Amino acid sequence: MKIIKINITCLVALLSVLFIGCEVDYKDIDTLGKADSGASEVSINLDLFVAGSWTPDQVAASAGELKVEKYDLFIFKVSSDGNYLEYKEMNITPDASEMVPHNQSIKIGNRNIVLPTGGTKRVVVIANANDKASYPVLCSLAESTKSDFSDVTVYDKFINDFSIKADKQQTSPFIMMGNALVANADMENIGITLAPQYAKINIKNKAAGSETNGLFISSVQLKNVPESAYPFINDYSKKTSRFVNYEVNMVDNGALEEMIPDKLYLLYTPGTSSAAADYRVTVQIKGKKNGVDFEKEFPCSNPMYPGYLFNMILSLSGNEVEAEFVPNWSDGNFSISGVHLKNNKMTFPFTADKFWGYEIFWATNMAGAVSVEKQGNESWYSITVEENLVRVCCLEDNTSGRERTASFTIGLGKKKETVEIVQQSMPSTITFNGMEWLDRNLGAVLPLTEENITHSDTYGYYYQWGRNVPFPTFGTVGIAVSDPGITIQQAHGMKEFIVSSSSSTDWYTAVSVADKTTTWEDRTGSLGNPCPEGYHVPSYREYQTILPYKNSAGIGNFSKVDFKINSAEVLDDTGTLYDALYVTSAKDEATIYAIKKYQTDGAYYLRLRRIKTDSGIYLRIDKLSGNAQSDFAGESADAKLSSASAIFNSATTGMETIYFPAAGRRNNKTGELVNQGINLYSWAATCWDVSSSGIYFDPLDGNTRIYCIAQARSFAQTVRCIKNY
Q1: Cis peptide leading into 327, omega within 30 of 0?
Q2: Which of 222, 252, 375, 540 is 20 to 30 Å from 484 by CA-CA measure?
Q3: Fold for domain 334-423?
Q4: Using the 8-state DSSP alphabet, how is residue 364 labeled?
């Protein structure tokens, strides 16, 4: 693209935008990087979160550490011409915070923003800046007064010049940052998580005693602390830094083992091989050891990473006070972490995922290349080193009838960690309404029980409709744009999430809408479906036997107490038309009662409940057998609701129950994770018109809904398999 200033010699200007009378080459916001950044106006939604735990032990953050008073928002337009500040908004007041299910984070708000262009964006959010942060001169594209936009803030300058200053002990609210690259701004939701830009030290006195015996602490002081930090670059060699001593913290009761918690915070302190000693924060401890006054300074770990909780453990060795930092990286350290890594063990489902698997991240202050090595010759799994992470994948379904294990090492130089991996065997089934369902979603490692239902390990893999490639429930995935040249066979050999174009809701665009297939297997042919042998993706009709029938008659919404009889429900292969009686509760109770095959010998009762707990939301469906006389007594909706509730509450035997988690899904335009812990989406194998159907469960809008609904096939959603019969 050509970029030159606007030159007007002999022309007529209309509204300072349309130039008539000569050939003009110009550059404006819409054309800036148009070839690779998109020019159409888009609306984006930003979901803002605050990380609720400390690395590496996932200790919960305190209320003061989670507090956000104001935040600043910056969006940079990414293009081949440069990354320009397109949008900025300062001093935004967050919404009331709410806990996020399944983890310790909190949500502080949502922003809907209209941008003049789509395409790739860099989003930066900085919270609690106040007088602690120093920004470069900020000028957005819309504020520019230069025809070549030379006065607009570019991303590189922003990250190199942004700094945080703390010349004294930091207190709540603490400065936090979130920074994300968004591949496509035209998406439903963009999640940004704010993380603390400081490290925390807790002091533990393992020799706690009294003023006359053991170790008694009277004061603690952080010394040689950075006065400022450059969080985007984390490199003090590029900046001149000053160091300060923080004020003395008096200890209320120096005989306690846990001392001054939630008080010692310091900015990121880099460690370098050339000048590490210059950057070492020290902790000065004063008190008494066995009745004798002492004063001693202890060097901290090197480096002190932001977002990390460091435990300083004090002890007495003879008559000497000693301190151990955990984690301690002063002599070279290599540590690993990951969502699925617990005590250096990873548990995989029986289902293979040869592309994405689980991720292990590392942190180190040493130079060199990270290496991995298998401890056996197992071929059923792979480990690969990628940029900043190690990816572990199970390459085969485990059909052996028993779980299998393996181990490998990951490390740098002499520092190594051993990781054990376990792949589960084929899970059990449960019987519900005459069908055998897997006891979990495909790709989940926990069964769907009352105890587990809100745990993220029950989500399983996500699948795009008619494509047997699993996508993970955590992290980001690579994307490819839908293209008529991508065949079914090619799509099943690709790891990328295929995003739909603006003109299509399908990832497969080689055929017209009129030629769309009607079942999963029609599309995949010999590739089959993602379920294990002997199982299948539930059909739309199978789901209709346990959910409100379609929703064309308004059944399945509940915002008030109501009832109705729905006719012409097709629930089996005979094509018989059945009636069904539905009764809905008020929204607060979030319950739908139904009698399927109403007034026939095969009638049965259903109760569908949206249940909300402190740890999350889920769908529970209960079933009781009935007969031709089964009914909800009374003439009014309230009476029928009372009767329906009494039938289930009085049942002592014969009740069947099935659970579905609110697992969310991946957005069809971006591949990003959306609505985890909030909404339930699960595929059916058969179509409803040109889309595909399944469960859709959205408890947060004005009319909570539980019903089967058509979904665009390029979304990635969960699958719950049923045994063939």
Answers
A1: yes
A2: 540
A3: Immunoglobulin-like (2.60.40)
A4: E
Tokens of 277: 């000693």
What does CATH list as the number for 200-326? 2.60.40
pTM (2 decimals)? 0.66
Sign of CA dihedral 13, 15, 16, 18: negative
Same fold, 12-196 and 334-423: yes
639-669: pLDDT as tens digits: 999 999 999 999 999 999 999 999 999 999 8
Helix (H) or strand (E) holding 681: strand 680-688
Q: Is the dihedral of CA 594, 595, 598, 602 positive or negative?
A: positive
Q: Which amino acid type is present at position 288?
A: K
Phi, psi of 600 (to 5 degrees): -125, 165
DSSP-derived secondary structure for 62-127: PHHHH--S-EEEEEEEEETTEEEEEEEEEEEPPPPPEEPTTSS-EEEEEEEEEES--S-EEEEEEE
- Please name which of 12, 143, 16, 42 lies closest in space to residue 89, comparing C-alpha atoms: 143
Instruction: Tell me the C-alpha distance between 190 and 181, whole Å.
Output: 10
Strand partners, 259: 203
What the block records as the tokens of 234 is 């984390």
Q: Concatenate the DSSP letters of all residues of 584-606 into one string.
A: E--TTT-EEEEEETTTSTT-EEE
| Whole-number pLDDT of residue 288 | 92
Residue pair 132/166 in contact by the 8 Å Cβ criterion: yes
Q: Residue 707 corresponds to which tokens in the numbers above?
A: 């019903």
Which bin fits 634, alpha (ψ -120 to 50), beta or left (φ > 0)? left
Distance CA 647, CA 310 (A): 56
In whole angstroms, give the CA distance from residue 252 to residue 667.
52
Q: Where are the domains of the chain?
A: 12-196, 200-326, 334-423, 436-539+667-723, 540-661
Q: Give the other-Cβ count within 10 Å of 494's Cβ.
A: 15
Q: Which residues contact 111 (CB under 8 A, 6 or more apart)?
A: 45, 46, 48, 73, 89, 92
Q: What are 313's two structure tokens?
A: 């453990």
What residue type is 613 in one-letter code? T
User: Residues 593-604: pLDDT tens digits?
Assistant: 999 999 999 999
Of 466, 474, 356, 368, whose CA–CA distance to 412 is shortest? 368
